[in-house]
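for the recovery benchmark. tokens below, seq after
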């Protein structure tokens, strides 16, 4: 273990800063719980691979209309402008933070009930949120007077998480609480899902889009499975089965797809973290190899049939 530190309140999410402009001079880590905390992690110089941590910021999400600080359910770090962090809270608000000045740029009432998750689209201005009111809402930092409801779940069942496709910003994924299905949305066609993915025998707990592909998605759930889906043909026909599956030794509660090493996906279950290698490209290469082999075989059969006529 390289480093550990105490977190005064159960941590709801943890993310490394996506900032690469400093050449790795600062490794910033953010966590949410009672507050948004930002930590600076540095090498301790011992040569043993151990690290030191220092808290850089503690940002209070106190609602202007309340004397109490409402717990934070999730957050997202803007990849285009790493100075921007957005948080979601049970007090119905989303807050956009300026990391450098350690102040809130804006705080808005995003939903009618608790907000469970927030995610930025590609670029620095657009983000979406989901919550207990069963809606997916889209916001633009350049015009916060209005928001767009792009989806509402049947019976307004709570939506727990969402993930935005960073390769094709038209698509995002979400799922309802205690649901076995993952919903894929196209913001150009609000209200109706493009496709709903089954495949899980237990509740879905997490989804992640491939960082290197616009049409691959990983889902994980209580059935101990992590599934990789190919959505390249979802506008033409239903997507019924995943292209890859991995069975863990316990219910998977979270996952992350590596941006720098896109063949690797990390999953968390029980008290364990596993890093799995999903060779999506190898599967596609194998498909094309089998396809061309089948074509060649068919060509030989046709020639043989012709010779025996």
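predicted aa per position
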């Amino acid at each position: 273990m390289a480093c550990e530190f105490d977190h005064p309140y159960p941590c709801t999410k943890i993310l490394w800063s996506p900032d690469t402009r400093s050449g790795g001079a600062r490794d910033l880590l953010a966590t949410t719980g009672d507050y948004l905390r930002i930590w600076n992690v540095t090498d301790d110089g011992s040569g043993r691979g151990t690290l030191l941590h220092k808290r850089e910021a503690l940002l209070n999400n106190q609602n202007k209309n309340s004397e109490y600080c409402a717990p934070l359910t999730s957050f997202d770090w803007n990849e285009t402008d790493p100075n921007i962090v957005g948080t979601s809270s049970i007090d119905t608000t989303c807050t956009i933070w300026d990391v450098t000045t350690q102040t809130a740029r804006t705080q808005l009432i995003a939903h009618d009930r608790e907000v469970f998750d927030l995610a930025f689209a590609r670029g620095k201005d657009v983000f979406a949120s989901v919550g207990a009111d069963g809606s997916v809402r889209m916001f633009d930092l350049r015009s916060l007077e209005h928001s767009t409801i792009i989806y509402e779940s049947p019976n307004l069942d709570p939506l727990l998480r969402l993930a935005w496709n960073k390769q094709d910003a038209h698509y995002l994924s979400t799922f309802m609480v205690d649901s076995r299905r993952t919903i894929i949305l196209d913001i150009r066609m609000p209200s109706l899902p493009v496709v709903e993915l089954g495949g899980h025998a237990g509740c879905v707990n997490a989804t992640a889009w491939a960082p290197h592909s616009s049409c691959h998605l990983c889902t994980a759930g209580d059935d101990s499975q992590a599934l990789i889906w190919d959505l390249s043909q979802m506008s033409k026909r239903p997507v019924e089965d995943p292209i890859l599956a991995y069975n863990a030794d316990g219910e998977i509660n979270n996952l992350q797809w590596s941006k720098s090493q896109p063949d690797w996906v990390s999953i968390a279950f029980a008290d364990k973290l596993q890093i799995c290698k999903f060779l999506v490209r190898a599967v596609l290469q194998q498909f094309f190899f089998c396809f061309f082999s089948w074509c060649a075989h068919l060509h030989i059969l046709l020639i043989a049939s012709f010779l025996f006529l």
